[in-house]
Amino acid sequence: MTDEPVLIAAFSGRALAQSARRAGYRPLVADAFGDLDTRNAAAAVQVIDGAMATGFRTKPLIQALDALAASSETKPVGLILGSGFEDKPRLITTLASRYPLIGNDATTYKACKDPAVFFAKLDALGIAHPETHSNPPTDPEGWLTKRIGGSGGRHIRICDATTSERRRRYFQKRISGDRLSVGGVFGTHRTRIALSRQWIAPSPEQPFRFGGAVSIPDVAPKLRNKLESAARDVASAFRIVGMASFDFIVSDGTPHLLEVNPRPGASLDVLDDDKGSLFRAHVAACLGVAETGATPDAPTSARAMAILHADRGALTLRATQWPVWSADRGPPGTYIPKGAPLASVFADAATADAAEALARARLAELEDLIYEHS
Any idea what DSSP says for residue 101? Predict the structure, then answer.
């Protein structure tokens, strides 16, 4: 157990804070929510008001991180970034000049999120991906438009006759198939890779909104090898270190790589263990030191997480008897806009299908509970 303080910045720092705590660190978290679970896991929390609406801004974030560092009796070992920085390489550079960055630098983020650079590299590596262009298609049927640096699926729109060229957006041919993600820790001799299956929770405004993920999907060995090999090749090409996730759509047996997030992602909730092994391995890989701790045990059951969105309407949370399988729980008085993330649920079962089914059932149960109490 290290008991070292570590800074964490993310739209939601809860999963990273819990993993850090399991690994023996004292997490100091700056995020957009400050929910009850993050506060329980963290040694200190600073909430960046409005970050989800505007994105992280340099001055408020630095003030929050400086306050967190000052609250610690010992100097934090470094700063780990979660979601919210995919389109902010200049901010990453600024942060890296002030705190030891435990993760990928701005150059890696920029290369992974620049469609012209990223998909050209995939072509050079012989890795399949959807047809992608910077200009709108002549015929919009079957095409999507995505924001450069977007994450979580909220930025994806279906092209139509009114779709036009816009700054910071690109266009991609839509592919149908199974959504599989390769997550793990890269850039170390003890590279760990695991698969998860993802699904969307569409709304009229956001048809590709991220809905959830489950570990240990039933994947044929040949396909698994293709997915893992592609992830390793891309991680090497972009010099990715530490936790990262690679999102694919598998169509007719061929995995097509959609994007790479060179940071801890949503799959951390379903791939980590009760020792915080992924967090510990991430720190070791990024700092170039030997990993400590026992090798994690192979999982014996599948784990699912799913996000509950406020699709019934905006609400203000009241005192609620939250189920033990829920997370990202806001304190009473928290206002949740319509369609915004409301909470998360978890489920464990013998198979991925059973875990996902249980998570979906718990979403409905939790939705009824919260709206009845609000």
Answer: B
